[in-house]
# Entry
Amino acid sequence: MKRYTELSIHGQQVECRYLVKDTIEHLNLLIGGKWVGMDDLLNIDEVYLALDAHHQNLLQEDNA
# Structure
């Protein structure tokens, strides 16, 4: 399932999309109008946890 949101990186909002299966597996950032793979950022706990919280909130909204 693809999800879209924004991340704050150095104070700038960056559009992102991520792929969720059982876990968040892929992360792309929109840079210069192109989607760029940034899977390595998922190794940063704060990034992964923020995306997981976003995903969990969307799941709750879907089930409401």
